[in-house]
Every structure is written in C-alpha cells, then in structure tokens.
Amino acid sequence: MGRAFRVRDIAVQAGLSETTVDRVLNGRPGVSIRAQRQVDQAVRDLERQQDQVRLGGRTLVIDLVMQAPSRFTGAVRAALEGELPGLRPAVIRARFSLDETASAPAMVEALERVRRRGSQGVILKAPDEPEVVEAVDQLVAAGIPVVTLVTDLPTSRRVAYVGIDNRAAGATAAYFVSQWLGDAPGNILVTLSRDTFRGEEEREMGFRAALRRLAPDRALVELNNTDGLDATMHDLALEALIADPSINAVYSIGGGNSAIVDAFAALGRPYRCFIAHDLDPDNHALLRSGALTLVLHHDLPADLRRSCHALLQAHHLLPNAPHSLPSNIHPISPYNLPSAVGPSWSGVRGLGG
After folding, report:
1. Residue 262 contacts residue 269 (beta carbons within 8 Å)
2. What is the Cα–Cα distance from 124 to 148, expressed in whole angstroms?
3. Which residue, 304, 293, 353, 351, is CA-closest to 328?
4. pLDDT tens across 214-267, in order?
5. For residue 347, pLDDT beyond 60
6. Residue 3 pLDDT more than 70?
7. Contact between residue 236 and residue 256 where contact means Cβ atoms under 8 Å apart
8. I need a surface site. Which of 3, 272, 298, 347 has the fewest CB within 10 A?
9. 78 and 207 share a domain?
10. Same structural domain, 152 and 197
C-alpha cells in the first residue's frame, strides 16, 4: 500500500506526520485505527490524482469540505478531480472531508482540523451558522483562503462565492410551476434539506416572492430539515400529502426526490409538475422516467474550475483578485436530456455556465 508515493506526499494528503505514515506503511505498532484509515484514504486519493503528483512546479494542497447527501458530494468530488489535471500554473491536489448529516459543531471541527494541519485553500459547502462563519474567519486569518460553493456565507471573510444566483433560481422555478398549474387548483410542496443553508433559503425566498406575483392565491406547504436524504424525506412527504390532499405540485430545493415520488405513488396521487435542482444520476433517471418535469441545472465542473481559479488568484498565481460571479441556470426537460450522466455530470458540461 502506498509504495508508489513518497511518505511526504501521503502525509500531506492524510494530514498526518511522516512518522505516523511510516508506521502505518510498515505495519509498526502505535498507530490508531483512525490514522490507518486516513492513510488508506490518502493513498486512494493520490492514486486518482497521480497525474498531479508526478507534475513538477509549485504544488497547492486544497481541501473540499462539504455537508450534503453522498449523491452530491460524490459528484462534486469527481468533478473537482476531473478539473485538476488542466489547472495551471500551479499543481493542485485535493483532500476531502465529506459528510451527509454533519452538525454545525462537526463542521467547525472539520475546519479546525484543516487549520491545524495547514492548507492552501478550502472549497466549502456549509450551513450559515455563526460558529461556522467564525471558523472560516479563523482559516482566512491563518492565511488559508476559502471559497464557498453552492451556498454562501456572505458575512464571512471568504474570498468568493461560486454557484448559481439562488434567488433567481427560485423565481425561475415559480415561473415554470405557475405556467404548468395554470388555473388548476392545488397547493405546492416545497422541500429543503436545512434552513441554515443560505442558498436553499434564498431559493425558497425567490420562489415565494415570485409566486406571490404570479399566483397570489396558491399556498405553499414547506418541509424542512430533511438533510435531502430519501430515508428522512419519505415519511415527512407522506405525512404532508395526507394532511393536504390538494397538493399537486412540488418544488424540491434540497433533494430526496425519489422519496417524494414514492410518497405520491403510495397514495395513488398524481401531480401536475415536479421541479428539482441539479442533474445528478438520481434526477437524470427520474427525469427520463417522467417523474420529474424539469431540472434546474448548472455546469458543476465549471464551478469547481472557477473555485480553484479563485484560490490561485488568492495566492497571486493568476491575475486579478478573486470575486463572486453567479453560474448560469439551465432548465433541462425530458426533451433536452443528455443520454447519460456520469458521476461528474459530464454529460451536461457546457450547458450551464
């Protein structure tokens, strides 16, 4: 294990000392199970990024830290690793701290680990909690630039936000829902993974504000704090549908879409439209089957490329200062659906911005 890589490279990737890594590689006593797992994971990361390891020149090691369902973190990870070989002028390698249900204290702990072991930058998706903002500010104070991805921490000292204009996305969803529902009666189910994710909150606010103008008499039924997981979404969606038989449309902001579709099916209830975000493999299959009406998507690889460029700018390795610039939103229906979507969503590359 790991013999193709220098102990120093593995230690940097794992965030451990060279002594600890050497003990793990040589099967010596005195190392924890956690350290062994970190070394195993570091070797797997290096194997996927081995083109970066071979390249000469200055090397930046950055950290991707995210709280999101694994279907999304896996896609982001694959998209980032797909962009690394083409980035210049420095060589960038990535480490990962990904969790489906991390609390704000757990996120703070993850960021503190990054600060203690050192990093040349962080790409972050995290809830907008005061303690998380403080942890970001401490990273920046330690000389570690932070780029927020998908959901912003605008009061923090992050150098840039990369992602869509979430209010505009919500308003776009409201426009499509109002067009599909027309004059038909019925309420709309709106789902979020966490109300502490500013991006989701802004989508909901944009949706609600636009709908007040377009269909002021239509009511919203909101489900929150599901973590976007099918396991937690199903029962909550089923309960909401039973409580309100008039629900006949869905705007899914935070995921768990298969569970929502299953809840409608369990009751034998049809719906007129279902709008979701991001063309991940789950949503690709749901859209292809007709369970989803529309997906609001953006170019994820381009977002990761721009995130890395912002970190390079923060280190003065590219011209200009890092800045926030919203990604384009691309509506995808069953009629402009790519034939296949891989783990990095490369099938829709270039459709977004």
Report:
1. no
2. 5
3. 353
4. 999 999 999 998 888 899 999 999 999 999 999 999 999 989 999 999 999 999
5. no
6. no
7. no
8. 3
9. no
10. no
Pair (150, 176) in one structural domain: no
Q: Quickly list DSSP for 249-299.
A: EEEESS--HHHHHHHHHHTT---SEEEEE---HHHHHHHHHTS-SEEEE--
Q: What pLDDT score does 340 carry?
A: 54
pTM of the model: 0.78
Average pLDDT over the chain reads: 89
Q: How confident is the model at residue 12 (pLDDT cuts 50, 70, 90)?
A: confident
**Shared-domain flag, residues 44 and 155:** yes
Q: What range does the domain containing 119 cover?
A: 7-160+301-324
Rounded distance between C-alpha atoms, residue 241 and residue 97, angstroms? 36
Specify the pairing of strand 330-332 against strand 294-297: antiparallel
> Mean per-residue pLDDT for 176-197?
93
Three-state secondary-structure class, residue 332: strand
Domain count, the chain: 2
Residue 158 has which token pair? 């992050």
Q: What is the CATH number of the domain that holds 64?
A: 3.40.50.2300
Judgement on whether residues 99 and 211 belong to the same structural domain of the protein? no
